[in-house]
Predict the structure.
Amino acid sequence: EYLDMGRFWQILIFVGLLVWLALMARCLIPALRRQGEDKHLLALLFIASAGIGLLFGAGLLYERDTHLTVAEYWRWWVVHLWVEGVFEVFATAWVAWVFVHLRLLKASVAAIYVMFSAMVFLGGGVLGTFHHLY
């Protein structure tokens, strides 16, 4: 749906995602610079936020006159890696962060689980993208 809109709306969504990324960075970067805390989970949350903000841009890498195979390649990047990969990593990191602040998990344990989940989600997303190449 996001890629079937007109180019103006795609660019507007991309700009909105970049603004959202700037707001997330404004909060997360000072927390990452603090001394003495386990920052792995915050780093994962920031990386997932950057993925959400930036990976949508792959859908802007083709035009109306681009060959169908190239356009489909970038479209599947957005479908598999942005929607089915980075969103899951962000949601997992966010839920883990909430559990850490509820004192249900240690930050180091939560970071390990988020990394494992990220490997599963992104590994499946990359493989899911490659089956569209033939």
Q: What stands out?
A: Helices lie at 7-33, 40-55, 68-101, 107-130. The two ends are 23 Å apart (CA to CA). The chain has one domain: 7-130.
